[in-house]
Amino acid sequence: MKVLVTGGAGYIGSVVVEQLLKHGHAAVVFDNLSKGHAAAIAPEAVFVQGDLCDRELLTRVLAEQQIEAVIHMAASSLVGESVKQPHLYFENNLVAGVTLLGAMLETGVKKLVFSSTAAVYGAPETMPITEDAPLAPTNPYGESKLAFERLLRWYDEAYSLRYVSLRYFNAAGASERCGEDHAPETHLIPNVLRVAAGKDEYVNVFGENYPTPDGTCIRDYIHVIDLADAHVLALHVLDKRSEIYNLGYGSGYSVAEVVEMARQVTGNWISTEAAPRRAGDPPVLIASPDKIMRDLGWNPRHSELDQIIASAWRWHQAHPNGYEK
Ligand code: UDP
To answer: Does this model's pTM top 0.90?
Structure first.
């Protein structure tokens, strides 16, 4: 299949492109490089630098490249930032998404895999989280993704635009070529590894009095390659129907456990500093991946936390300044 990947120069997008190519698909990356890196794009992919708000360009690329399906990953994705600047999230995640859908309808492209998020659930009490859990986002990031998911249903009904919405839990780890390089870095595992590498003195632990066994937040960390594989599988659903799937492993680790595991993996001491809770952080998020395993035979191969951290560590050691040469 020939697939347009929006956000294909980003952390997860670049690995999705790798996996698409590995499975014999062709990839066209559409990215404005506001967060992504040209060096992250697999050389076999076609790259178009452009903005999702540019409907004319989008329409032209979809038509000229004879795109059959879109994987839509371009988004703003920081919970804390979304609380402070919600307009960015509704503009980048909702308005831009609607523009993309308009271009798809205009060119007759009716297959979409959408990067959604566990943040659509807010702070549910029942774990693991299944797809039918109540939808109650606690921040504008989750709200913007949920709003887009909701309108997809109506595009399906009216225009037969089939979609698979993948609700990611915590993406982590690296492939051999592609890893996490954000500026500023906000995610736990790369921040912990910055300390292991001697770049930072300590890592903040945001909240130590959550209702969890050690008081720190628990997350379901999923290897970016397993996450990417799910996108490739999802393409095959689009001939038949629309679906929503959670993507995680069904088990979680606390912030303190991640730090301890990183000490073991890297062999380096990692200092921590207690810090206030971060706005919008739920205490525990663990996915039930049963539905995607059952329906699509998704078979994660990298679910061990030590493997996830080791892959990120290898990438960071090979790229001490990220994608910058
Ligand atoms: N976290 C932390 N210190 C950091 C970064 C993150 O304690 O430097 C915590 C954060 O509060 C959350 C968990 O680690 O409980 C995972 O955060 P991350 O930003 O990696 O992903 P999110 O859950 O926000 O998608």
So the answer is: yes
